[in-house]
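Structure request: Protein ZIP4 homolog, Cottoperca gobio.
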Amino acid sequence: MERFVSTVKCLTENLLQKHPIDYDQVIEKLFSEISGLEDFPKIPDPKLEECAIQLWNWAVTKNVGTTISKNLKAKVRHVACSLLYCCEPENPTEGVMRKQILMASKTGRTWLDCKNPQMADHFLQFAVKSLETLYAQLTSRGDGAADITSSKGDVEKDLLRILSCQAESALSQGNNHEAVVYMQRCKDMLLRLPKDTAYLSLMCYNFGIDTYNLRKFEESAFWLSQSYEIGKMNLKYAPGSEVQAKVLRFLATVYLEWDCQRFQEKALNAVSIANKECMSASGLYLKIRILLRCGASDDHIRAGLNEMLECKVSLEVCLSTVKLLMSEDREVLAFDYLKRVCQHFESSPDLGTALVLHIELLLQRGKELLGKQKIEDIITGHYTGKQLSPQALTSLHVMLWDKASKHFEATNYSEALQWYNYSLSFFKAGQMEPNSAKLQRNRASCFLQLKQLEKAKEAIKEAERCDPDSIFTQFSVYKIAMQENNVEKAAEAVNAMGHLYKSPVTSQDGLLVSENAASNLLSLAAQIALENEQQETAMKALESLCENSKDEAQVLTALRCLVRLVLSTIEKSRDEMSTPCRNVNMDVLLPYLKMALQKVSHQSCMSVEQRTEEATWFRKIAWNSALQCESCPDRMRDFFVLSYQFSQLCPPDRTLLVGQKTCLLMAAAASLELCRKSPHSTQTEELTQALEHIQICWEVWKTLKASGSFPMDPTDTLLLLYEFEARAKLNDPKVETVLESVLELEHVETKMLETIAALAMEPPAHFPLLCKKALRVALSLHKKQPQADLARCSKCVHSLIKLSLPSGVSEVEAHVLEEVWDYYEEALSIIAAAPDDFPEMERLWLLTRAWNTGILLYSLAQYPEAEKWCGLAMSFIRHLGSLRESYETQMSGLYSEILDRLDKAKKNLIMEE
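Returned structure:
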């Protein structure tokens, strides 16, 4: 026990010194220590008792405010009270016992407030035990002393309070019988404690409320009856007639909801006594409820209604009673009573509320003619000094508009207009307010349906004057413009609607109620325009909707509509063979598809299936649009890129990947085509884009190849060609790697190598070495063919010689001449193999270039080489056809002259040496 005492003392000191944020942990530790004790072992330690008092006082100081929770306060009191009982001496004094009673009863009460009756019972029993001990001690002293008698009275008063708490605890645990036993003991004590009559009556009333809320009507009726009976036991200390009447009204309500037919008499008796105790509007109203529920005769109910009027209840209660009568199908009684109520309150400023209710009930019962008469009477009164209150007038307007709206929906436009006109009668001429504008818009809608265009225009003109910055007003302007076929005015209205879209819409017309009113108005505007074959206006409305709406599903629907409209226009232009018009429409289509891509990409509310459906639809549109742009590579590229981007939003499969590959190939090809047609300053951007498409396409192609074989597919060839061209024109050194990849292909076509050779030298590219390498491989492949294509062989040789021949003095080098000589020998071998198939002009070109090379070498005093090349040129003469004779004569003389000069030059050179 020493450890226990030491721990409690230490924790108590900590609690008294701690900051508020640290209370919870210390209290929980203290509570845990006490909870671990079995019963309350006797520990006669003054320090422990001091801890108990300190903890109790600390909890009392925390009772004000919300420093700690109710539950923590209960635990501190629990600990303090438990410690006090642990320190109890064998023969406790009166003072000790009074401390125990105080602390135990208050701890029990606190646990009850925390909805923990089991814990409360524990301490309430301790309190009763201490009270009994104290009472026995006081009784043993004798009856003479006044202070002893007073003390015994205090004990009895404390006992009554504790017993009532025990009753409350028992009831909260569902033990009604036990609660009744405790309460009976309390009642028995009231003769000695009359001042607690009101307290005990209120306790029973609260028990009645609690059981009623649990729908335990029998128990509730018992406790409410007890409350009333206890209140009658001592009139001097009773709760008062108002409270007693309240108890009885509640008792009557319990009987009403329990079983009105079975307890009809009890319910009526209770409410009648309540009304005698203290007449009140709620009591009179309750009596009518009971009579109606019990199916009483009209005479009985009429008597109750008369009683209400005689007791001067408020107009509000009277009108609630009228509604009650109507809900119970006592229509005749209701209208009769309402008529009397209106007469009774004729001078009241709130009479309008009754008149409006009368109209509402007439309309509900389908008595429109009588309702209209009442409305016309109110309109007459409105202009003769009998205006309705603002609240009543608002209710009437709502009713009139609702009636008009229903007629409008039923296409009964004349009737709808009449109801709107009734509402208009209450507005002053020139009155400026949004409701007036709304009313005029609704009237205009009716006029439009009735084909009364001029009257509709007048109504909208008034609406514009009252509320020009309303999107609804502009929509009405739009509708009229469309009926007049005024395209310009309709376009202006659509633009205005677009500008007003972002303004907050505080309310909607009765005819156009919608969560997204502005979006729906623009959508409706587009629909009206299409019905009137005004495609351009419809597109403006849809574009405005797309720009402003936050409903992405709605935007995608609008974009689909826009795309279809543009495609229909393109189809017409194709029929009319109007290419410029088709190109313009393609440019219009592109931003719609880009917006669709953005919406589908960021659509968070779509299911996977919905996203796939949307992406697939727009992907196909982009694909088909690209195919129609064969003469416009820039548009073609953009559409193919969009088609690829849409496909990325779909679940991948083999077919989709093939489509992606084709899109990227076509986009790359289009970018290269644009580069060829672009000025040098913009080529880099186009080439970079092409390269990006090519790189992505390689990845897609690798994935495809991994899924199966693709025999005879030219993708590898095309990608390498496109990549070679892009890198060559970007002067990218990786172009050599691309050529190596081409040469590593399993089947390299000579045509591809010839194309690469051409691309290597196509400006701005300049890679002569790569060009020659490709040509040499191509020539080699040509020669390996069973039947070589000599024309193409000669072109390869031609290109090789052209690339290799020195063009000036600085390029004359032995290894270069040797390389070119080899090409000439190749050419001669081709001529020898098929002299008839080698073009004559090509032979002449070879002759000329060899001769010129010899002359160049002669000028450089390289005489042996000069003689060699001139001799080579002469060897081609015999291969000339029709030109041989003329060239042979001319060349022979020149050659002889050259030889003579060479001999002289050689002799001079020897003499100089």
